[in-house]
């Protein structure tokens, strides 16, 4: 390896981080096309001039197995080898690949443009449990946390006493006295 070159293991670490991005079932061994484009965008492999998203898609299709929808790290490496001379024109294949590795190492998927929670006064007003009245108020405890099923359902009282009877549970004592 040349001086100042990056180890393939470091590239693989980044590959795994991007491979699992946005996919809960992903193992990090394979990467889908969407995440391949994401790693290329986030690591500035796609520069809009020499390498475009179309180039990246074409290379992805080229390196993956015919029926597969994902690529392994080996295929990913192959794809980078294809993209490197395009991205760094006028450099040798090895030199270009090393520079490409340099772009990838230590990178993690950025969450640019992730949807933020909208802060709207209307939503705040509707979700403020302190403003609930009547029957709806019963669904929350003092802290404003929902009671769940207990707050939603009328749980039948099968004690044998009529509702709101204050002397429930006193029958036995009354019978003894008689």
Automatic annotation (TrEMBL):
<keyword id="KW-0963">Cytoplasm</keyword>
<keyword id="KW-0349">Heme</keyword>
<dbReference type="GO" id="GO:0005737">
    <property type="term" value="C:cytoplasm"/>
</dbReference>
<dbReference type="GO" id="GO:0046872">
    <property type="term" value="F:metal ion binding"/>
</dbReference>
<dbReference type="GO" id="GO:0001578">
    <property type="term" value="P:microtubule bundle formation"/>
</dbReference>
<protein>
    <recommendedName>
        <fullName>Cytochrome c domain-containing protein</fullName>
    </recommendedName>
</protein>
<feature type="domain" description="Cytochrome c">
    <location>
        <begin position="28"/>
        <end position="166"/>
    </location>
</feature>
<feature type="region of interest" description="Disordered">
    <location>
        <begin position="141"/>
        <end position="160"/>
    </location>
</feature>
<keyword id="KW-0408">Iron</keyword>
<dbReference type="GO" id="GO:0015631">
    <property type="term" value="F:tubulin binding"/>
</dbReference>
<feature type="compositionally biased region" description="Basic and acidic residues">
    <location>
        <begin position="141"/>
        <end position="155"/>
    </location>
</feature>
<dbReference type="InterPro" id="IPR008907">
    <property type="entry name" value="TPP/p25"/>
</dbReference>
<dbReference type="GO" id="GO:0032273">
    <property type="term" value="P:positive regulation of protein polymerization"/>
</dbReference>
<dbReference type="Pfam" id="PF05517">
    <property type="entry name" value="p25-alpha"/>
</dbReference>
<dbReference type="InterPro" id="IPR011992">
    <property type="entry name" value="EF-hand-dom_pair"/>
</dbReference>
<dbReference type="GO" id="GO:0046785">
    <property type="term" value="P:microtubule polymerization"/>
</dbReference>
<dbReference type="GO" id="GO:0005874">
    <property type="term" value="C:microtubule"/>
</dbReference>
<keyword id="KW-0479">Metal-binding</keyword>
<dbReference type="GO" id="GO:0020037">
    <property type="term" value="F:heme binding"/>
</dbReference>
<dbReference type="InterPro" id="IPR009056">
    <property type="entry name" value="Cyt_c-like_dom"/>
</dbReference>
<comment type="similarity">
    <text>Belongs to the TPPP family.</text>
</comment>
<dbReference type="GO" id="GO:0009055">
    <property type="term" value="F:electron transfer activity"/>
</dbReference>
